[in-house]
């Protein structure tokens, strides 16, 4: 297991441990080397920030938390949702749709270089909410570079965080810009080992290492696959063999990765049974991520009979090790009426959700808000929903809209519409339908069939039968909706069968 005796780079910055410029330059150089390696493996990190840079006893850098990482061959321009941490993210990520490239990681590296130079744990003011941050970043706004920064360091930082990703250097260029060229490794194996040293393969929480080969299809000889099985390209077969060797040797990170591969059906035929077994081995080997993923398998009955009590037990083990996702999962378990867990108390649920909320998990904020809402404490519920909404959580934005539309104590139709629109712009279907119905009926806003049809069409195309029924009704009444705007006859029929038409 990799150790990070000096914690994260965020810790080092916060405790003023970066004592000189050579030290900052070396850390930046090693981060760039780590990026160069994962980019050569066709991987984009997508959540690079000081909290995801580990520092060993001798200040060696390890990149970690690859939970949001994706391969180049995935269609990253249409992922639909913002991923990562806003303060460190590139302007193109906030476009519609988001544009993730290797240059997005380089932008984040530039922000990290600034943080080391300014000795500040994060850019921009803490009082800014998600949308204010997004507006700043989209316009290319940057923090001031402090005085006394060496010219080379300043120039490298400014090139990395250029708002135009076409003008940013690649990670390999940053290595040279930092003034330290890579030495040639004596062999290919030594070179790969030298690069891989900058990746954390395991650390006490969700630091899933990725060292995957390119997902692009490999060359085939045209022969049919044996036994009707899908052909596995040579590079993927090699990667699977490598992971299996590591997993059989007890490497829990490899076991977790194999579990994920079988659960998602990437590179192999999907098998929840095999995924469960690999997660179980990792969990029993004290992998906190393995424990969390095993909990999800029990929760949803994947590869094993559904057992919510067992799910809670595994979530609890991971939560005690400060695994945020498991802490948040207690909210889902608490509100699941099928969960007959006699030892699961509201006090424990609130404890874990509070810890996850402290780490900035918006889903935990929503669960806490829902708890207060059920206790008829509307003001406290609103406060938690607002925190999640400011972090960009679409459901929280929708719940605030519902509250201001009359479900809560503070009726304000203009504010309600604003929150609904923010949620709807993130493709939250309930918000899109509610907006459409609100404009159709003229509840608190001028009646507007064009606006109503716009939002109802968006929701209907995503399968919302209520929206489809409203579109059909508008068409039947000649209210400005063309037959082409009705999502489909099948969708409307489904709505009719459910009594929504």
UniProtKB/TrEMBL annotation:
Keywords: TPR repeat. Residues 1-183 form the Protein kinase domain. SUPFAM superfamilies: HCP-like, Protein kinase-like (PK-like). InterPro entries: Kinase-like_dom_sf, Prot_kinase_dom, Sel1-like, Sel1_AlgK, Ser-Thr/Tyr_kinase_cat_dom, Ser/Thr_kinase_AS, TPR-like_helical_dom_sf, TPR_rpt. It comes from the Eukaryota. SMART domains: S_TKc, SEL1. Residues 213-233, 480-501 are annotated as: Disordered. TPR repeats lie at residues 362-395. One of its GO terms (molecular function) is protein kinase activity. Pfam families: Pkinase (PF00069), Sel1 (PF08238). Gene3D superfamilies: Tetratricopeptide repeat domain (1.25.40.10), Transferase(Phosphotransferase) domain 1 (1.10.510.10). Belongs to the sel-1 family. This is Protein kinase domain-containing protein. It comes from Actinomortierella ambigua.
């Amino acid at each position: 297991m990799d150790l990070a005796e000096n914690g994260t780079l965020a810790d080092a910055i916060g405790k003023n441990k970066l004592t000189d410029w050579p030290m900052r330059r070396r850390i930046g150089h090693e981060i760039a080397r780590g990026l160069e390696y994962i980019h050569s493996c066709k991987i984009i990190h997508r959540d690079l920030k000081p909290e995801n840079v580990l520092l060993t006893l001798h200040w060696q850098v390890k990149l970690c938390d690859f939970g949001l990482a994706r391969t180049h061959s995935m269609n990253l321009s249409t992922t639909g949702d913002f991923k990562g941490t806003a303060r460190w993210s590139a302007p193109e990520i906030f476009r519609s749709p988001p544009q993730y490239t290797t240059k997005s990681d380089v932008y984040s590296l530039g922000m990290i270089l600034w943080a080391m130079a300014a000795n500040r744990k994060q850019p921009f003011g803490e009082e800014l909410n998600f949308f204010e941050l997004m507006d700043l970043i989209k316009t290319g706004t940057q923090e001031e570079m402090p005085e006394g920064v060496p010219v080379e360091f300043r120039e490298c930082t400014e090139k990395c965080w250029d708002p135009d990703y076409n003008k940013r250097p690649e990670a390999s260029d940053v290595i040279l810009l930092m003034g330290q060229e890579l030495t040639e490794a004596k062999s290919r194996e030594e070179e790969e080992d030298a690069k891989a040293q900058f990746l954390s393969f395991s650390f006490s929480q969700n630091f899933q290492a990725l060292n995957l080969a390119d997902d692009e299809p490999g060359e085939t000889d045209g022969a049919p696959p044996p036994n009707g099985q899908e052909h596995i390209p040579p590079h993927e077969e090699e990667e699977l063999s490598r992971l299996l060797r590591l997993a059989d040797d007890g490497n829990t990170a490899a076991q977790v990765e194999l579990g994920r591969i079988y659960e998602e059906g990437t590179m192999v035929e999907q098998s929840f049974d095999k995924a469960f077994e690999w997660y179980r081995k990792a969990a029993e080997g004290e992998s906190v991520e393995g424990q969390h993923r095993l909990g999800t398998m029990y929760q949803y009955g994947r590869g094993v009979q559904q057992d919510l009590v067992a799910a809670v037990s595994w979530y609890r083990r991971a939560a005690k090790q400060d695994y945020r996702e498991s802490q948040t999962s207690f909210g889902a378990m608490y509100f699941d009426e099928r969960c007959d867990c006699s030892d699961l108390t509201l006090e424990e649920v609130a404890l874990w959700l509070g810890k996850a909320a402290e780490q900035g998990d918006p889903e935990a904020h929503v669960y806490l808000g829902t708890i207060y809402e059920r206790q008829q404490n509307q003001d406290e519920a609103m406060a938690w929903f607002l925190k999640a909404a400011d972090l960009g959580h679409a459901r929280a934005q929708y719940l605030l809209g519902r509250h201001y539309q009359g479900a809560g104590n503070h009726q304000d139709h203009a504010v309600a519409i604003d929150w609904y629109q923010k949620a709807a712009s993130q493709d939250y279907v309930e918000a899109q339908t509610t907006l459409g119905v609100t404009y159709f009926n003229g509840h608190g806003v001028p009646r507007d069939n064009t606006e109503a049809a716009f939002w109802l069409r968006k929701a209907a195309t995503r399968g919302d039968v209520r929206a489809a029924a409203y579109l059909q009704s508008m068409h039947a009444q000649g209210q400005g909706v063309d037959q082409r705007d009705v999502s489909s006859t099948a969708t409307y029929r489904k709505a009719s069968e459910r009594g929504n038409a």
